[in-house]
# Entry
Amino acid sequence: MVENKRRIGIMGGTFDPIHIGHLVTAEAVRVEYNLDEVIFIPAANPPHKNEANVTKAMHRYIMTAMATYSNPFFHVSAIEMERPGPSYTIDTIYALKKQYDSSTELFFITGADTIQEISTWDRIEELLGLCHFIAATRQGCKTTLEQIKQHFGDLGKKKIHRLNTPELEISSTDIRDKVKNNISIKYLVPESVEKYIYKERLYLE
Ligand code: ATP
Ligand code: MG
# Structure
């Protein structure tokens, strides 16, 4: 009998707000890597960001849920928001591993900027032992991903992979700036997220 391993994608982020760059990337990884589902996990207290400047987790969770609801393969988890203290990816991965069968394979999805930083992450080698990393790339950063893989030796070769779909040039920072400066964010975020941002008066200062 052929073993039917589940393959689950994990998209961690601040999602302040979630935008189509996140959604297009997650869907591209799902298709390219034949995943059964992708779980979006909004961070509660991002260790690499200044907490005071991050929008309330509840708003970020609601926007993430609205942005993903129409895709039957996408789900949102409050796992990091429910856990006190800073959110370290390795704690999340261990918690998810407990929820699934031991044969389940996890694929952590990151953008080009995040993959360049992973060598600074808490217990990164242990993390690479537990899940795959799929990195979106920006045009011109081909060598950088190779360098990162090399940095981790055999583990890097086995566990860090490239996403062939190139990254869209969209960031939450740019969307927040646009809202603040009264510039349209139409089509950069789903319509529901756009309406929610204005209704809740987010990013005005
Ligand atoms: P900010 O500008 O506030 O840092 P962001 O747009 O980078 O926001 P995050 O929530 O920080 O969004 O990112 C979550 C994950 O999504 C990270 O791995 C990041 O690299 C990735 N990501 C962000 N934007 C894109 C994009 N346009 N294409 C592909 N991946 C992206
Ligand atoms: Mg970012």
